[in-house]
Amino acid sequence: MKFSSLVLSALVLSSAAAAPAYALDFKSVGAAPAILYDAPSEKGRRVSIAPRGMPVEVVLTYGDWSKVRDASGALSWVQSKALAAKRNVVVSAPNAKIHAAADEASATVFSADKNVLLELTDSTPVSGWVKVKHRDGQSGFIKTAEVWGD
User: Signal peptide position in this chain (predicted)?
Assistant: First the structure.
């Protein structure tokens, strides 16, 4: 009885150790629009063109290519050199409020409609909020539940 529970414990531990740890790796399309493909090759079918600044989640890197997920959940391939480390987020809520502090009771600095692109100025969430900046220069805090790409 002891032997079988010991073996079972060893199997559980070894399978847990073998499971990869996944961390979300978000990047943005660089200064120029990027072509998205259905395969990691320029010979693949062109799926769409990603506008500059568009946030993507890097799911896998294969040589000079990255498999990415966009805000809609679609997967495609892009040349890794087309991605930048600069982080952007896209508003996923209709009429999101950006506050002066990471607090619902703080003053509203501005609001942003769904699909508006915001620069992530601090990628460390504070109690469910992230600091963002609009291209017009306004900055503040938005709830992480109201953006994609953080």
Answer: 1-23
